[in-house]
TrEMBL record, chain A:
This is Ribose transport system substrate-binding protein. GO terms for cellular component: cell envelope. Residues 1-21 form the signal peptide. GO terms for biological process: transmembrane transport. Belongs to the bacterial solute-binding protein 2 family. PANTHER family: D-ALLOSE-BINDING PERIPLASMIC PROTEIN-RELATED.
From TrEMBL, chain B:
Belongs to the binding-protein-dependent transport system permease family. AraH/RbsC subfamily. The chain crosses the membrane at residues 21-43, 63-96, 108-128, 134-153, 174-196, 227-249, 261-294, 306-324. Coiled coil: none annotated. One of its GO terms (molecular function) is transmembrane transporter activity. It is found in: Cell inner membrane. It is a multi-pass membrane protein. Keywords: Cell inner membrane, Cell membrane, Membrane, Transmembrane, Transmembrane helix, Transport. One of its GO terms (cellular component) is plasma membrane. The keyword ATP-binding does not apply. This is Ribose transport system permease protein.
Length: 312, 336
């Protein structure tokens, strides 16, 4: 957790510097759908904790429950409350843009967290803070190439169709794989909607269809472990390299057991702290780049000791 | 009306024997369609009819199938149960989460008890309060979803020691070379089919679903009958949760999302009428298997997952239309 400590330290430093400069900041956050998955749930509690640790911040925490209309209403409420900055985890990268434009017009800086919004909305936001999902796909492709020694036939179990994270990971993976590993062929991709049971079913069908599968790339570890379950059930797990993303506790354990080759370490705690930090930097008048990616390193058996087991 | 329709058949097909052929086709249409698609799929994929693929499909279909057995009883009794999908999520999260906390046996008992309780609430509201089953179970669907989120706080649940627990037998075990989920599906289907066809209880459910007023006048306690169908449905969901939880060795809040539609699709496809009072478990088993094979076939042919939804929709509409067309014809011929 090297990242976490540096971030916490910088938050502390910042609170020391800005406390004298300006009064406490009121920051409003509207999240996508807390409670629907472990990542978002952990994100919320990490955000709360980071805000509590900082005397210079007062937060209004809202949750859209996955509903775009509700999220737009929440943004409007935050504008009415005259908060100093709005952090939004968009429920839909397109539909929230008009609300963000209103905030922009009201002079309230908007920070988009975790999932990107459509290009058309970029002019209304101060910054984006989150994981670089294209880069994650790239990293996974490199791991796959290393693991297979540049030769083989693989399948992909992707996330929910139409979901930006899923598309970006697939895109990064496919493009990079073609570059670094022309000898590895991606024979088929099927979505499994971030659902482990569906991933298991998809993989069972892959195993029937292809007698020869050397590797599986899954859009997250939850699905990756589903695919691993299927291969174990068919007694074919031994010869297959499993690589995922968003390291889950089950994936972490599978890497420890040597059944799972690697994943991408993406901590919701880092995600939440980076979002708050970006907002504070902007309020402090610092020069902040438009796109802020927090680090999401590769994790394999070789370096697993450097990472804490994810809580989800 | 009747003569006019028969007349037009003669005009269209020339001879009466051909209209007999047509009625055979429309009566067995789904089965014929199924066989045809099996042939088509096997042209495109040599693995399609392989033993291992057939076993995989039947195993995958068994979770839907187990639930469909219960829901068929509810439908024969003249009601609907749309809450089974989120009930499945609830029961699976429960049994997986409790497994490590209180041990598998207690976890399974608690899961069955709580799932049956949810079924009892459905049954009470529909059977005794006489509320519309569509509304009651739809409301239950979202209520349970909320309940799961409160219970799990949104976290995924997992069984820590996956290889060291006998709980794995329900989803991953084999009995005499047959996967346990398939065995559970078959045993449930056979028992419920026997109960529905050969016991007075089964006949009462048919009577209540077919003509509730006549059923009441002939001394059947309709409220209790309806109530009991929801208990059967909940029991089947609990069995399915056992299989699902053990198969995945983990669960997430929305794992059963959309299952209610797949279950209904299987039932309708088999030919059980949504109007109640008719149908059989046997038909549901066929319907669920057809659905499973078509979805698997599309995947083997390389179509993305969501083409299945479109195709499923088309097949359901076809099935409902055939059902209706048959009924109309039967009505017309008995009147003439």
């Amino acid at each position: 957790m090297f990242k976490k400590t540096t971030l916490a330290a910088s938050i502390l430093m910042l609170s020391a510097t800005t406390a004298s400069a300006d009064g406490p900041y009121k920051i409003g956050i509207t999240q996508n759908n807390v409670g629907v998955d472990s990542y978002q749930t952990t994100y919320e509690s990490a955000f709360e904790k980071a805000a509590e640790a900082n005397d210079n911040v007062e937060v209004v925490i809202l949750d859209a429950g996955g509903d775009v209309a509700r999220q737009i209403g929440q943004v409007n409420n935050l504008i009415q409350q005259r908060v100093d900055a709005i952090i939004i985890w968009p429920t839909n990268g397109q539909a929230v843009i008009p609300a963000l434009r209103q905030a922009h017009r009201a002079g309230i800086p908007v920070i988009v967290t975790n999932s990107k919004i459509a290009e058309a909305g970029m002019e209304f936001i101060a910054a984006f803070s989150g994981p670089d999902n294209v880069q994650q796909g790239v990293s996974s492709a490199e791991m796959m190439c290393d693991a297979l020694g540049g030769e083989g036939q693989i399948v992909q179990v992707a996330g929910q169709p139409g979901y930006t994270t899923a598309m970006e990971r697939s895109q990064g993976f496919e493009e990079r794989l073609a570059e670094v590993c022309p000898g590895v062929e991606l024979v088929e991709t099927q979505p499994a909607d971030w659902n482990r049971e569906k991933a298991q079913r998809v993989m069972e069908n892959f195993l029937t269809k292809y007698n020869d599968i050397d590797g599986v790339y899954a859009g997250d570890d939850n699905m990756g472990v589903g695919a691993l379950n299927a291969a174990k059930g068919a007694e074919r797990a031994e010869g297959i390299i499993f690589i995922g993303a968003t390291n889950f506790a089950v994936g972490y354990e599978a890497i420890e057991r040597g059944e799972y080759y690697g994943s991408i370490y993406q901590s919701p705690v880092d995600d939440a702290e980076a979002a708050l930090q970006t907002a504070l930097d902007i309020l402090a008048g610092k020069e902040v780049p438009k796109m802020n990616f927090f680090e999401t390193p590769k994790i394999t058996a070789a370096n697993i000791g450097e990472f804490e087991k994810p809580v989800f | 009306m009747a003569t006019a329709e028969q007349g037009s058949n003669r005009v269209m097909f020339g001879r009466v024997s051909k209209s007999g052929l047509m009625s055979f086709l429309s009566a067995q249409g789904i089965l014929i369609f199924f066989l045809l698609s099996m042939v088509v799929f096997s042209f495109f994929s040599e693995q399609f009819l392989s033993q291992s693929n057939v076993m995989t499909v039947v195993r995958q279909a068994s979770i839907i199938g187990i639930i469909a057995v219960g829901v068929t009883v509810v439908i024969i009794g003249g009601n609907l149960d749309l809450s089974v999908g989120s009930m499945l999520s609830f029961a699976t999260v429960l049994v997986v989460d409790l497994h490590d906390k209180v041990g598998p046996t207690t976890a399974i008992i608690l899961m069955f008890a709580l799932t049956l309780m949810v079924g009892a609430i459905n049954g009470f509201l529909v059977g005794f309060m006489r509320l519309n089953s569509l509304i009651v179970t739809l409301a239950m669907l979202s209520a349970i979803q909320g309940g799961i989120l409160i219970y799990s706080g949104g976290q995924n649940v997992d069984i820590a020691n996956q290889d060291g627990t006998w709980f794995s037998v329900f989803g991953r075990g084999y009995v005499a070379g047959i996967a346990v989920p398939v065995v559970i599906f078959a045993v449930l289907a056979i028992i419920v089919q026997i109960v529905m066809s050969y016991t007075s209880y089964g006949r009462r459910i048919f009577a209540v679903g077919g003509n509730p007023v006549a059923a009441v006048y002939s001394g059947i306690r309709k409220n209790w009958c309806v109530f009991s169908t929801y208990l059967i449905s909940a029991f089947c969901v609990a069995c399915a949760a056992l299989v699902l939880g053990s198969r995945v060795m983990g669960s997430q809040n929305n794992v059963g999302q959309g299952y209610e539609l797949l279950v209904l699709a299987g039932i309708i496809l088999g030919g059980t009428s949504l109007l109640g009072g008719a149908g059989s478990i046997w038909k549901t088993v066929i319907g669920v298997l057809i659905l499973g094979f078509i979805q698997n076939g599309l995947l083997l042919m390389g179509y993305p997952y969501y083409t299945q939804w479109l195709v499923t929709w088309v097949i359901i509409i076809l099935a409902v239309w055939l059902d209706l067309a048959n009924k109309r014809k039967r009505l017309l011929t008995t009147h003439s």
